[in-house]
DNA sequence: TCAAAATGTGACCATGCGGCCAAAAACCAG
DNA sequence: CTGGTTTTTGGCCGCATGGTCACATTTTGA
């Protein structure tokens, strides 16, 4: 019998454990995207996954832990995909353009993830009012952009500008457009937005 | 005794009714901002407002109706404030800059509103899966910007560009930066972002 | 001034939720 | 095969929630 408080991961998670966790997280993303956060009880998620409710309790410490796992999963998937594509480019200007293009590509092909992502923003500071955790979520994205920008400035590809400040604006523009698209898919042309953003920030960064 | 189903607003709402509704909505905004959506029960809100729980049920058809009222209130406040300031400017370029500046000013001075706003995004389609309502929420903002842009193009202040497309980008940038600031206030410099956005879109729109 | 309407109260209720557990089932090493 | 371990099941429980109601209080208007 697994003790109630997990023994600090004494052994590696079994194959079944990893698979089940993954399955539950993915089902939960779909369920939340479809019915909203409040409409997605553990029972609902279990039913969608075709398992008993107890299984979720067995693999996750509680609802909060499941939500945390969902957040991590969504963020990791997106980050991995984007950075993979960025890494294939050499020049800073290409990296920046690819960052934007990959972001929109991923958003466009993973709508449920971002619908759920949106539903979960409100739950971010639930556990202990830890507003601070949220910073941890966003900082890597801004950091990635800022790194590209700084590198471009170092090798004179880019002109001088405050990299950190601009990275906030770039990430903001991407997320803000995503938000509009989540709330009103028919009203937003993701492809056009992606194109314009690339042109806009290319113009804004490239040396004369 | 008021009938359960409201008689289609046969008479104008009384003074007390209007005041109470306003009080409840404002208290609810604060409560949700402080404790999160799931942590803000009707009982909590009532307590914060110093009234009995039944009063909320008396003035609102249910929790969903209250949330809807909150959304309308937040949106109306913001929209009114911004458009008031925009209206004071004559030239299109000034209107655009003022739109951006006013947006950030309002965001910066009404944090609780936007924390709650963020918490409520997930509840937008709760009632009937009406994803469509969301469009109604965002469209006015984009419309306002597009109107400014079009006017500027007509009188040659602005160069030619797809106004609708750019308005999506402008509103997106504002909201995306707001989002980062909500999640991580210490990590974002609103003033700098406002300045950069104004410069960026001035550059992007103004005729040569 | 006073009855009727509007508003507020606090207790009450049904419901659904997250969490728990004892027993069954599946899995696996020896 | 077998005994121990992991995983799953399905039902149960306590609790908090949104909503309702009979009654108290205040406001209104003639």
Note the main attributes of this structure:
elongated, 208 residues, DNA-binding, 9 helices, Arc Repressor Mutant, subunit A, Tetracycline Repressor, domain 2, disordered N terminus, 2 domains, mainly alpha, homodimer
Structural summary, described in words:
The structure is a homodimer of 208-residue chains. The first copy, chain A, is mainly α and 208 residues long. Chain A folds into two domains: 14-60, Arc Repressor Mutant, subunit A (Orthogonal Bundle); 70-205, Tetracycline Repressor, domain 2. Chain A has nine helices and no strands. The longest helix of chain A is centred in the middle third of the chain and has 25 residues, at 63-87. The radius of gyration of chain A is 20 Å and the shape is elongated. The termini of chain A are far apart. The relative contact order of chain A is 0.10. Mean pLDDT of chain A is 90; it is low at 1-10. At the A-B interface, helix 6, helix 7, helix 8 and helix 9 of A face helix 6, helix 7, helix 8 and helix 9 of B.
